[in-house]
Amino acid sequence: MGKTLGECCSVKGNMEERAERLALYIIENRTTVRAAAKKFRVSKSTVHKDISQRLPQFNRSLYLQAREVLDINKAQRHIRGGIATRRKYRGV
User: Fold this and answer.
1) CB 60 within 8 A of CB 42
2) I need a labelling partner for 59 at 20 to 30 A (CA). Which of 9, 65, 68, 84 fits?
3) One digit per residue, pLDDT tens: the chain, 92 residues?
4) Residue 82 and residue 80: Cα distance in Å, rounded?
5) What angle do CA 14, 20, 26 make, to 5 degrees?
6) What is the residue extent of each domain of the chain?
7) d(CA 62, CA 91)
């Protein structure tokens, strides 16, 4: 049986493989760095480093696709923050 994209524990050693899997997960699920870090059980710093520094060295096209999703998320984060604050104070 093959590994699924979300299987993270075996990916901690091989940085290139981890960077590729993180990028694919982010692209396929249109997810945030925080969500990817949680899924793969690594820190947000590790996700950032893998995507922004390691990935461009060996897979430029995948890097550009992942960067596009992360840029969209970055542009929308103030909106998500406002929604979270509203929920907090409304008790929802």
Assistant:
1) no
2) 9
3) 344 444 444 455 688 999 999 999 999 999 999 999 999 999 999 999 999 999 999 999 999 999 999 999 888 877 877 888 888 898 76
4) 5
5) 130
6) 14-90
7) 40
